[in-house]
Structure formats: C-alpha cells, structure tokens
Amino acid sequence: MTISKFWKIPESAYVHIPFCRRRCFYCDFPISVIGDKSDPAQFPPIDIYIQWLEKEINLTENLGKPLKTIFFGGGTPSLLPVKGLSTILESLKNKFGIAQDIEISIEIDPGTFTADRLRQYQDLGINRISLGVQAFQDELLKSCGRAHDLKQIWDSINYLEEVKFTNFSLDLISGLPHQSLEQWDESLKQAISVSCAHISCYDLVLEATTPFGKIYNAGQLPLPTEEVTAAMYRMAQRQLTQVGYEHYEISNYARDGHQCQHNRVYWENQSYYGFGMGAASYIQGIRHTRAHKRSDYYKYVASLENKQCKLSAVQNNKKDLLLETLMLGLRLAEGISLEKIEHEFGQETKDILISLMQEYLQNGWVNILPERIHLSDPDGFLFSNVVLTRIFERFS
C-alpha cells in the first residue's frame, strides 16, 4: 500500500541561516563561522548565500497553499542584515503566499541585535523570537563556548521589553559540564522572572563530532550524573508548571496561546518546505536533506536550475510513517490519537500499540485513554526513550 493518502500540502517553511560568530562546543549543526570581529553587513559570503536561497525558493514548486508558519533557524539568523531577511521573506511571499495569521519565528542570540533591530523585525512581520540564553551563569556560558555573556542576556531581554515584543521564548540547556542543580535552579528562576511567553529546556546531547563529544564521556565527570539530570528535568517541570506554563512537549513550556506552531508541524509529522544549507524538507512522503557545506549547497541549487538535480532523499514507506508518527507524537503532552492510528494504519496496529503500552501502565509512564495514548509528565517523558525503543522493536 502506498502512503499517498497521508500526504498533506506544506503550509510551513524552514529557512536555515548558517552563519555564527563561533561554534559552540556542543553544536553539530551545519554552520559557517565568521569570527567575533567580522561585520555581517560587510561579509560578502552572506550576500552570496542570500542570492542562492532566493534561487532555491524561486525554483521550488508551489503546491497550492499559503504559508502559515516560517522559521528562521541556524546558525545565528540575527547576524543576517535586515535587508537580507526582507529579501528572503519577500521571495517566500511572492512564491507561496502567506496566511493572514502567519507565525514568523527567528532565532536570535544575545549580543547580536539592538532594540532598533527588533523594531525592524516587527516591521517585516516577524512576530515570534527564540532567544538563545542557554544559561544564566557566565562561567557556564564560557565553558560551553557561547559568544555572549550574562550582561548581554539581560541587555537583550531589556530590548525585547522596550519594544514590547511579548511573544518570545528563552532557550536553556541542562546537563552541561560542571553544571550543578543549584545553577540550574538559578537559571530557571531567572527565566521565570522574565515572564516570557515560552521556555525551552533542552538536555545536553553529546555528539561525537563536537568538542564536548571528543572530550567527555556520557555519565562521567564533569558531566552531571543521570540522577542529577533527571532531577534537573523534574525541577524544570515542577517550577515552570507551578507558575502557569503548560508543559506541552517534552522540552517545551508555553503560556496559554503561545505554543510554537511551526515546531508542532514537525511533531505532528506534517509536510514542510526546507531551504538553505543543511535544511530538511518533507514533501509528498519524501524527506530531503540539503548539503551541509555552502559550496555543495550552491551546486545543489545550480542543479535545480539546470534541471539535473539528484535528490539525496528518503522515500517513506508505511512502516516508516507509523514509527515517525509515534516517535514524534509521543513527544507532545496530548500524545497520539488512537482514532488517527486506526484510520491511517488499521485496527490491528492500534490493538498492538495498546497491548504494547500495557507494560508501562503499572509504573505510571503511560496513560491509555479511550481516544488517545500519551506519556505521563514528568516520568513518562523522562523515560520516553525506553518506551520508544520498545515500539521500534515491535513495529520494525
């Protein structure tokens, strides 16, 4: 059976802006380092990159629906001159159209913008910001290679408050080398004091190719132990929900009406366009990841222009779609719709899933309701990898 009946027309676009001042010690994203002293407005590779982005957007087929979300990720998109952002947004608008209530998000780092820059973002229609704080301690920021310090964090927050940019998120990282429970507690309290609309709390992941991945081994000092990182997770859940944040996804908390609509596209396994170096797209059941080097990305866009493109793509089959639907959907607090599972994958698949989840009812990791299955908060989320491993074993 084909999975064509599951395809949806994309209504979201991710745009990757790869430029960073420096590479953080935990980062394995496709980026291009420009250095601490370079002026982005006078950095020719940025202008060249924007030109190739425009080409890719213009060469992409419009499948028929206006965009409801656009997300500028990176990298550090706030290094991009406003004129460049305007050019990209205009290309997206002309090619696909945009919905009246569109969510346009941009990731920004402390020390890379001013209040005037934020006003320019507002003029462009950017209405959601993700501020990469990571920690509220100078020593932790320095030890993980961040280009900003604590003063720049508070300057950035003051700028956001000055221009009344209320829909912004703070990113924090737990499990950093040398990070204590007391420091994590302090970071949470500082984030709460800001009264922002959204907070993301990510646990450090050691990637083998990163400086941290080469220096540290999981479970060994100076990394916090598994017990400590679990305590950090529970601490975040307790403190943030107590002050009114909804824990709507494993790593994300939002005030009412401020969930990230773009990221929900990923978690709900919907289709989306992707543009730029290293960006992924998911269209008509095909996942396509672009090259992770600028020169190779430019060759890819040139091949589109010459109609000689060879996609390095993965065509999903029905089993892949099921596993992705379960893996991504169980990240959300509402979990998986059993009606959707039955409709898209059959009664037998639904029955197997319910039976499989029975073993996690006793320890309280899973809740099985007549209409859906979801992981409990916080323990189910904490041990989600155990549950997902069992699902993959059974359905693979």
Short descriptors:
single chain; 396 residues; alpha/beta; pyruvate-formate lyase- activating enzyme; 2 domains; 9-stranded mixed beta sheet; 3-stranded antiparallel beta sheet; 15 helices; 17 strands; 41% helix; 20% strand; globular
Structure description:
This protein folds into 2 domains: 8-267, Alpha-Beta Horseshoe (pyruvate-formate lyase- activating enzyme); 335-395, no CATH class. The protein has 15 helices and 17 strands. The protein has helices spanning 44-59, 82-96, 115-124, 138-143, 150-162, 181-194, 211-215, 226-242, 261-267, 294-305, 318-329, 338-345, 347-357, 379-382, 384-395; strands at residues 12-17, 19-20, 32-33, 67-74, 98-108, 128-134, 168-174, 198-203, 246-249, 252-254, 273-275, 280-283, 286-289, 313-315, 336-337, 366-368, 372-375. Strands 9-10-8-7-6-5-4-1-11 form a 9-stranded mixed sheet, with helices on both faces. Helix 11 (318-329) packs antiparallel against helix 15. The two termini are 17 Å apart. The model has no long low-confidence stretch (mean pLDDT 94).
Quick summary:
With 396 residues, this protein is of the alpha/beta class. 41% of the residues lie in helices and 20% in strands. The chain folds into two domains: 8-267, pyruvate-formate lyase- activating enzyme, CATH 3.80.30; 335-395, no CATH class.
